[in-house]
Inverse folding.
């Protein structure tokens, strides 16, 4: 039972003891009596009982369990209201009056709250004990100021227990007990432990479990925790992105080299004609084989393929020097018949192109242009012949479209040729190789009697369970077939939809390939690609312009452009895989050893001796 005249109370609930610091400087140690088991909802201490055995009740309205120490502290330092019902605490008997208490008519009992007569005089000065039962030295308790005045012992004065430090208020020590300080220290240790676990494990869930399992923390500790925090990203997640950014940076730096020395190459076609096309003599220009690859005629329009072939056959180049090979990987009879119709139309189209020098020489693109086609045309018959040729092309296009519509209805027994035999390519995955020469030497002439370039249809052999390498395999087959039929020293490959919009393009390529000084060291000449009917805002158009106008010209200034898969004139010998010709050794006095410093010229001396010996032999023979 707590007495009102004991002074300052300090102790530990966990050790079941407390130390009394009396008003006159005496010290004592008592065991805590067992209570009725009801605890305070604020500090967690047991609620005191009075001499009659009744539990201390702070609030008469709701009987919220609050100990006497918390009750006095709340009245003195807090809001002076009950935490549960928010009713103002009334002053109880034996408690100090605070500001705001109601005036009472009866005599207050504060005069009898501290009684220093009788029993205090009989008590001797005692040395306080620590919670472990050890005596405390006087040197360690200099902060305790005992009141030894005899006048104060004889008088009944209204005094309050003095703290250990006279300059501090009692409220600075918490609730007046060591147990509260021990709990706060334990709480700080636990917070440090949780912080270390968060740094080591980086797992906030485990630290949250520790907080939830500890019931000895104050009720407001959880509300004092931060509402958010930041976590570092693991290096295993961020390192791949950093590596990619570093690689992209390196790639960007290397890509800038192609923009430092862009070049534009200019050709002189008149000089080429003066050197290789002399009057009265046959043309000495090199021959060229042009490859056109196509796969499925139902996906790749035969009309577009026919326009590409017509632009090749109408080139401004000697007809006997040009050979066109069309590869049909689908072995379709539709492509075969479309080429047959193209040959018939080419007999009329090629003389018209060369007579009036029209550009481009693909009829679909030529008749679709919205330009003044009468500009720079001096022939009076041009308009009449143009209308007739446009009518011929419309009929040709109708025949091609009829073939396409007919090809969509495949007979059950397969396609048959005009002689009644079965078409060899009915099974597209297993068929023999097919080669058909439509135009060429003694194979047909145009309406004016002039020779036409060679046109060859090729469908390579295919077998089941064999990798045919798609376009690369088709080009390899064309290289082998052309080596047998024409074997031109230069090769140009085109896709089915890439027309030649400049009839003098082959002549411009020969300006590099047939250059007397540097021509033998040129492997290929890459032409740029342009796409028709593309808007300026189209992303593909912008990328194509950047690649062709900047990157390709920049690479040409460093070493040479890249092969883009189409529109490239190759030297056939380079495709065969032969090594470059070795340079002849210059007639100098130095040896061709890698480590010249190791021989100190002895190998050169040996070579000189051998040469002298050979000369002497020849002299003797003479």
């Amino acid at each position: 039972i707590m007495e009102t005249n004991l002074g300052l109370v300090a102790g530990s609930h966990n050790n079941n003891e407390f130390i009394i610091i009396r008003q006159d400087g005496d010290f004592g140690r008592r065991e805590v009596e067992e209570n009725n088991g009801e605890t305070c909802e604020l500090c967690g201490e047991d609620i005191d009982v009075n001499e009659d055995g009744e539990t201390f009740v702070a609030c008469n309205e709701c009987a919220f369990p609050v100990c006497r120490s918390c009750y006095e502290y709340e009245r003195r330092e807090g809001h002076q209201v009950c935490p549960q019902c928010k009713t103002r605490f009334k002053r109880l008997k034996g408690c100090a009056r605070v500001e705001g208490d109601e005036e009472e008519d009866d005599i207050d009992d504060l005069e009898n709250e501290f009684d220093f007569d009788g029993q205090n005089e009989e008590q001797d000065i005692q040395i306080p004990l620590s919670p472990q039962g050890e005596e405390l030295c006087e040197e360690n308790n200099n902060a305790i100021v005992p009141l030894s005045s005899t006048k104060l012992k004889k008088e009944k004065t209204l005094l309050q227990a003095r703290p250990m430090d006279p300059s501090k208020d009692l409220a600075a020590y918490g609730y007046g007990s060591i147990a509260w300080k021990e709990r706060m220290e334990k709480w700080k240790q636990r917070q440090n432990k949780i912080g270390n676990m968060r740094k080591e494990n980086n797992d906030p869930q485990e630290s949250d479990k520790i907080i939830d399992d500890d019931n000895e923390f104050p009720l407001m500790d959880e509300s004092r925790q931060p509402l958010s925090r930041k976590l570092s990203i693991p290096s295993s997640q961020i390192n791949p992105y950093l590596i990619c950014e570093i690689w992209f940076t390196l790639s960007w730096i290397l890509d800038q080299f192609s923009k430092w020395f862009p070049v534009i190459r200019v050709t002189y076609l008149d000089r080429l004609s003066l050197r290789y096309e002399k009057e009265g003599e046959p043309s000495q220009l090199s021959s060229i084989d042009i490859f056109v690859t196509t796969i499925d005629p139902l996906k790749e329009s035969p009309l577009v393929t026919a326009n590409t072939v017509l632009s090749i056959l109408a080139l401004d180049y000697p007809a006997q020097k040009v050979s066109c090979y069309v590869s049909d990987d689908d072995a379709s009879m539709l492509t075969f018949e479309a080429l047959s119709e193209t040959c018939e139309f080419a007999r009329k189209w090629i003389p018209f192109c060369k007579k009036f020098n029209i550009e481009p020489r693909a009829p679909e693109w030529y008749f679709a242009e919205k330009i003044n086609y009468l500009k720079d045309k001096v022939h009076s018959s041009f308009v009449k012949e143009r209308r007739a040729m446009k009518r011929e092309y419309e009929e040709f296009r109708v025949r091609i479209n009829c073939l396409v519509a007919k090809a969509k209805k495949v007979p059950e027994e397969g396609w048959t040729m005009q002689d009644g035999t079965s078409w060899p390519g009915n099974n597209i995955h297993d068929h023999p190789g097919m080669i058909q020469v439509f135009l060429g030497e003694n194979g047909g002439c145009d309406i004016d009697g002039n020779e036409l370039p060679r046109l060859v249809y090729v469908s390579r052999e295919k077998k089941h369970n064999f990798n045919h390498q798609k376009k690369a395999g088709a080009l390899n087959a064309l290289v082998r077939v052309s080596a047998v039929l024409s074997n031109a020293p230069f090769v140009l490959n085109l896709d089915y939809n890439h027309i030649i919009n400049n009839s003098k393009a082959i002549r411009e390529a020969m300006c590099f390939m047939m250059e007397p000084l540097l021509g033998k060291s040129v492997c290929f000449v890459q032409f740029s690609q342009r796409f028709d009917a593309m808007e300026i805002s189209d992303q593909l158009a912008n990328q194509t312009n950047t690649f062709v106008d900047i990157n390709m010209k920049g690479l040409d200034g460093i070493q040479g452009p890249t092969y883009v898969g189409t529109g490239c004139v190759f030297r056939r010998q380079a495709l065969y895989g032969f090594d470059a010709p070795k340079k002849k050794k210059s007639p100098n006095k130095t040896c061709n050893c890698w480590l010249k410093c190791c021989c100190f010229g002895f190998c050169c001396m040996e070579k000189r001796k051998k040469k002298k010996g050979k000369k002497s032999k020849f002299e003797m023979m003479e």
